[in-house]
Amino acid sequence: MTATAIASRRDGRGVLRPGAATASAVGGGSHAVAGPGLPVVVLAAAVLAADGVSLLLVGSAALWLRGEPVTVADVDVVIEPGAQNVRCLHSALAGVALRRRDVPPPHRLAGLPIVTVATSYGRVDCLLERGRRDWEQLRQGAGPVAVADVNVLVASADDAWALRRRFKE
Fold this sequence. Notes:
Number of strands: 8
Strand order of the largest sheet: 2-1-7-8
Radius of gyration: 15 Å
Largest sheet: 4 strands, antiparallel
Helix content: 25-40%
Distance between the termini: 37 Å
Structural class: alpha+beta
Shape: globular
């Protein structure tokens, strides 16, 4: 599914039409499905993934998709390191940013620890340094979750909680 197709599921006010988005995860013999209650900001991760960005969803959105009782206010994505992926991230962010000038150019983006971009879906925090440091470790415990028909790599609940404890407390 393309970013345009995901965006078309929203009404004129940016609200998902009833039944327009779902999320499901398959793993360990179980299948969890979240229906129309999907937080709109989670779609930002699906849009970036649909645009080819290699990312791993962490934070409250990952916990919510893993069935944890949390409130989702933004999306935190760990970006896989690599020049091609950073260029892809730049292009995808430029396409969804409310203010394109808030997206640093690729050569600068590659060296930043974190980039926050406001989108019509909500705030997206791109954790670039975390990707450079912890991509392989986080990737081992992660698994795909279908969000609006796009597979998004989502951290395990244990990893998401561990990161939250480390950086939020």
